[in-house]
Amino acid sequence: MVELNIVNLLMVLAAAWLGGILAKRMGFPAILGELLIGIILGPALLAVLETSTDLDILAEVGILFLMAYIGMEINFKDLGKASWAGLLAAIGGFVVPFGLGYYTILHFGGTHIAGLFVGIAVGVTSLATKSRILVDLKLLDTRIAYVLMAGALISDTLALIIFAGIIGYVEAGSIDTAGLALVAGKAILFFCIAMLIGIYLFPLLGKLLTKAKLTSRTVLVTILIIMVLGFSELAELAGLHGILGSFMAGLFIRDSVFSRQILKDVSAVFHDISIGFLAPIFFVTAGFHVTLDVFQTDLALLICVIVGAVVGKILGTTLFYLPSGYGWREGFTIGTGMNGRGAVEIIIAGIGLQMNIISQEIFSILVFMAISTTLTVPVFLTWTTNWLKKLGELVKQDARNGYLILGANPLGLYIAKQLAEQNEVILIDYNKDLVNEAKAQGLKAIYGNGLREDAFEEANALNKNTFIALTGNSEINLLSAQLAYNSFYIPNRIVLVSPVENGVGLNLLEHMDASSLFANKTDMVPWSYKITTNNFEQRTEKIEKEISTRNWFKNNAKNKDILPILILDENGQKRPFHYKDIIKSKESVVYLQ
């Protein structure tokens, strides 16, 4: 009987929390800190912590839940945003480092199976941290952002498929034709059964739960856990590893079982269970298996694997990206962004160690490779994107376009109608009458709460380029802009700030990298009334000399009651008038007076 050592578990969790916090404060993913703290406090250095059977069991459950959560976070529709370019980057960024890793192990006397495992590990690209880095570097509206995300998704999925084949081969323990055919047949049968369950049974289960009113968070999380463990066992029965089953379960759960809001609530709980509790145990205990002896006994192999991983990922991405027609410099930049490894790589390496496919030395090398390559991503990507900017080659991506406006009041409707002449505009409002009025005027409008993610999802916020918060409450405007920034990565956020709320100032807007609508604090109510009663004139002023929006407003609003709403460029394209903009020569300002 396995007894739980509560003190040891408590110390591991405390160490994971400390390592994760320190890593995130330095701008790196939490798993990096969890691995390092495991190395420092584990047998490799201080020997304060040690692994045990109970921790191993919790860690194994942790990686199953983590892979399910990764699957739940993946949206295959995102692949269409990068299309051909993303596929090229993924193939080049996987195949070349895979080959280098495989032949490096063979050159140093390793087995073919060990070489394949190392090849998969160096070919993987970390998916989990890309969005945060892209947000921090303000790259989400660029082409390289979509290529990076698609490339990471494709390479991780490709790695798991190859991993499944290797595991099946190892479990079979045979190299004859009949044995390989059996392995392949069981793997194909698993994928077929998994797809049938995911496509047909999961949606039916979702409907039955709703009909039976079994929709409490506790019940749904329990059912989700049963699904994940059931798929994991199905994969094990097929001779594959459970992580492939849990990953597949996560993919199907995302799109077929729960409604958007329920999925968000349930996945948040699952996030806390996996990433907040169980997965950190795996990453800290993975650090326990690292040996520092490799710096003395296998230093040449360590250097070759790390150099091969970095050079292979960047060079492979650059070369394979050339047929896209976007240039080698953009390919090189994407390669630096894809260079980081993460959870999937460590999980695959850990399974290889557990199955005695790779040695403790090779496992240690793969951990140090993951740490060193992950550390390079923010530095390399910052340098290469600045390089592209200087050359004028940082291309904006058209995949995000259109406006999402919170507030279907008369002022919001007036601006929306102007912008809707050239762009897709969707309004969100919690007042049904205002929503109906917007629809009556031919605009797209959604009834929903601007502080809830389900309203943003219904408005297809992930594809919108600009968010405008235009309610009379500055606090709601700021909070909704923060939601647009954190959850949907909308690149441009413009907020109406009311003059009566002194606590809401430009410093808060700067903090979230947002801009103030109309380049000034504005009371919405009087202007809404003037629009409703048609007590205004719309005028246009052509600009002869370049000027900031703020200075234009100061120069023109001294003795006149005006509201600048739009800027027209030389081609007649419209954009909102806001604080963080420059009006160029020959552009025009549209204002109400």
Description:
The protein has 593 residues and is an alpha/beta fold. The chain folds into two domains: 6-45 and 59-391, Na+/H+ antiporter like fold; 401-592, 3-Layer(aba) Sandwich (Rossmann fold). Helix content is 62%, strand content 8%. It has 23 helices and twelve strands. The strands form three sheets. Strands 3-2-1-4-5-6 form a six-stranded parallel β-sheet, sandwiched between helices. The chain has a four-stranded antiparallel β-sheet with strand order 7-12-9-10, covered by helices on one side. A two-stranded antiparallel ribbon has the order 8-11. It starts with 5 loop residues before the first helix and ends with a strand. Pfam families: Na_H_Exchanger, TrkA_N. It is found in: Membrane. One of its GO terms (biological process) is potassium ion transport. The chain crosses the membrane at residues 6-23, 30-49, 55-72, 84-105, 111-133, 145-167, 179-202, 214-232, 269-288, 300-322, 342-359, 365-388. Its main location: membrane.
